[in-house]
Amino acid sequence: MSTIYFALIDFHEYFLPTGACVIKEWSVTRIRPDQPIDSQHHVTKPICPWYQLNKVYQDHYNKKYKEYGVEWSVGTISLDETRQYLADFLSKAAMVYTRTIEKVNILTKFLDVQLKIRPVNINPDLCPKVQAKMSYVIIGFQDYILPNDEYAFKEVTIFKFDDIFDDIEEFDIKSPWDRNLSVESTLTTFVVRPEIDWLYLPNNFKKYYKELEENHGNEWDSGIMGSNFARR
User: Fold this and answer.
1) CA-CA distance, 145 to 137, in Å (whole number)?
2) Please, which domain of life does this record's source organism belong to (predicted)?
């Protein structure tokens, strides 16, 4: 079995009064030739109570919250655990892909390790009319079950890419990071806006959703895209 893998990471970050950048929510995917894809998703616990943040940085985080819906108080692992896991996982990848040059800079500074990393081409419109269909699509999502037993998406990440493994022969690769591997790809993440007001939901559903929120960090009323548009 090949030990070579490529890594895809998407994350949301915020800035501290010290000027340091902290990754709040992140998702990583391991892509290997002819092997199942596996992913990890976590929300980083807050580094301090909300009241200890300067108002300027509270305002900064609130702007992030409106876009991504991740509350300051939620988290599944500590900041040190986030940094340790990502540094170990990404430094061993033949290539790391993330959203933009800005994300590349944030990630390398946050981890302070040697990475073979490049940005992917971001296009928020995944309509087939935009460009030719690609070879593979990876979708990761956070979902929940409505009171009427229907499934609904809350947060969705879609990564589309051409086949980057055509020229890879397992027995021939000694230093995959020396190969000029290329990928044509698009990556987009969005949070889906609910159709039902929180006030009109039954109490047992509210309890159920609050338990989910502890893991994925997305409050019920957060979201920038309607459910019908997300389905399309």
Assistant:
1) 24
2) Eukaryota
